[in-house]
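Hey everyone, long-time lurker, first post.

I ran two proteins through the pipeline my lab uses and got sequence/structure pairs for each. Pasting them in order. The first:
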Amino acid sequence: WGAKNLVVRRSEDGGATWGPTIEVGDGIHAGGTTVDEGTGDILFFGHPEHPPKDSSMAPRTIYRSSDSGRTWAGEEAVFEKDGNGHVPSLHFSEVGITLRQGEHARRLLRPARVYVEGAGYNMAVFSDDHGRTWRPSTPFPVDGTGEGCVAELEDGRIYYSSRQHRFSEGEALLHERLHAWSHDGGATWTDPAHSSLPDGPAYRGEEGRGANYNGHFGMAAGLTRVPV
């Protein structure tokens, strides 16, 4: 669950060829790389371990590149606790985005999650100072979620697509992705529902923890973004 090798490769021809490995820094990286479209900086996130032993205390390091990924410098960013007293983990989430519309334009927003005993939950973190301070959103409205992704829609809403790992006793073990919406730049999430988008094979009845567990994985956190 994560090797300590923060490295990147660069392509200058649209991904047809790739250059040599570039060392970024120490730690474990598992998603969430974000381009700040306001400055051009690339933000790369690292943890010392996975999962964090204490989600309230584990350090989170940002590695920043201001030259299109050629060189990187680490910085300790501030990540505020959520309403439940947890600092979100940055692992196993999709890339972040720069919001382009409305009063929160230029805000950096990326999915995140909280590891706690039991279910845990998805959420997001956002920054209005180019990635130096990160504030937590409210939790995704369904517990037992993880591995999420976000996209800004043309009407300004933020779409959140989430996997559900765990289910309450008696709850239907659905294998479709969950989605929810934000109308305030990713600070809160509402109207959760299972979509028609499958997330791996249907539950096979061999485990009691749902369709998206122990080898049943399908889409992970992936979300293809197209201009709509």
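...and the second, right after it:
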Amino acid sequence: MRPPRSAARRSGLSSTGPRTTPSTATARVLASAPDPVLTDITEGLPDPGDLPLPIDPEPIRRVVPGQGDDRARQQAMQPLLPTTSPVHFLLPLPPGIGPEDPALFGFFAYEFRLGRFGTWNTAQGFAVRALRVAGLQHTPPPLACGVSRSKGRLTVSAAFADPVRDGRSLRPSPPVTELWALLYAQVHQADDADRRNILLSTRRLEPPKRGRVPKGRGPLAAVDLARTGADGRTDWSSAEITTSLELLTLGHAPLSCLVVETLPGEAPYSDPVSRNLGYERFLRTSPLTAVPAIC
């Protein structure tokens, strides 16, 4: 599944048959769990289990002529968003989860049903058989690139992926992922129609240094240390930047940078964003950020 490039950060789904009318495609989250690759924890996390469908069992239901629609069942499922295609839908983020929620670093198990929305029905009568889909991932939270500059130094910072469970951080120390900063010079095209970015240098952001986890406290003990010094950092001296610009005869060209978060394998590659591009998975990429002028 490839999520579309949308500010709403929705995921795309497709069905194998035409859309049924008046039924509506709906979904709900059955369970969620942090990505084990990001937590580096292989034991100690209980199975969350699937949530039951929260609708009235209705062992007895009295219906009288002219009775209004109490919508007793419509809060149980989340409608999928239609598209221009009769067999493709957009899956919004789960209720209560925003685009920057660290829960999006995990996997979700979903239940999909065709339900009757907009027409009167009983709670037990609105939904048909369910389709369970496990291992679904939404777009992860955006990665922000922080840049500060002084006369002698340019500093780049960014936050590592922070998977959570029940609101508690499960990020190991050091983090499983790596952050890489790419420094660019901005130059004009020959026809002056646009600007281009020329890569000057790449540098790995150093992870935060944290205290050791006390012995015998288990895999979640790093929670107590998690929120301190959450950002990775790296920097370039002004002399290094000047030398790189002079080698390309770019003078005082304006600068910009971005940060890429990678998922290394068992044997990480050196410089996976330049010389070894394509050998490691990219988890997140920040927007290109202009380097401010020296104060």
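Reply from user beta_strand_b:
Welcome! Quick read of the second one: The helical segments are 36-39, 238-247. The first helix runs from residue 36 to 39.
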